[in-house]
Amino acid sequence: MLDPFTVKRLASIMDGYIEHKVPGDLRVSVRLRHEIVGNQLTLAEERPTAKRNEWDRVDIVQFRLESQKWKVYAKIEDNKWSFVEVISPSEDFEQQLEWVEMDQEGLFWKS
Fold first, then answer.
1. Strand 55-66 and strand 69-75: pairing?
2. Per-residue H/E/C for the chain
3. How far is CA 91 from CA 8, 21, 46, 66, 72, in A?
4. Per residue in 25-72, pLDDT tens?
5. Which conformational region is residue 39 in: left (phi greater than 0), alpha (psi within -120 to 50 degrees), or beta?
6. How many CB atoms lie within 10 A of CB 59?
7. pTM for this prediction
8. What's the alpha-carbon Rg for the chain, to the nearest Å?
9. Could you give the CA distance from residue 17 to residue 14 in angstroms, rounded to a whole number?
10. pLDDT, tens digit, 9 for 90 and up, residues 96-110
11. I want to staple 54 with a disulfide (CB 3.0 to 4.6 A). Which of 3, 16, 42, 49 is the partner?
12. What's the half-sphere exposure (Cβ side, CA atoms, 13 Å) at 7?
């Protein structure tokens, strides 16, 4: 479980990332959300459904703090999380977020 300081720090990092990633004029059609549970942070994309005030959620990436290092996980075909081996575990959360943003393998930001 993450300590309260780390939770606040991660929330601040993710809020800034999301603010930069999704321009204000697009936020009516797409939004990013993060959720912290235990030692995991999940980033998801939401888009409006045909029903008013409802959004569909698609998980993009999950960061897990394991043995004092952040590991990155992606969803695979059967909707299960799989460790991304091309991104080495690191103590630096922001470095891991940068790897996800670059997405050289096309695992996270599908077009």
1. antiparallel
2. CCCHHHHHHHHHHHHHHHHHHCCHHHCCCCEEEEEEECCEEEEEEEEECCCCCCEEEEEEEEEEEECCEEEEEEECCCCCEEECCCCCCECCHHHHHHHHHHCCCCCCCCC
3. 17, 23, 29, 10, 12
4. 888 889 999 999 999 999 999 999 988 889 999 999 999 999 999 999
5. alpha
6. 17
7. 0.91
8. 14
9. 5
10. 999 999 998 889 977
11. 49
12. 10
Provide the residue type at 109 as one letter.
W
If you search the block for the tokens 């939401």, which residue do you land on? 46
Nearest of 9, 1, 107, 8 to residue 61 by alpha carbon:
107
Q: Which two tokens stand for residue 52?
A: 């008013």
State which amino acid sits at residue 48: P
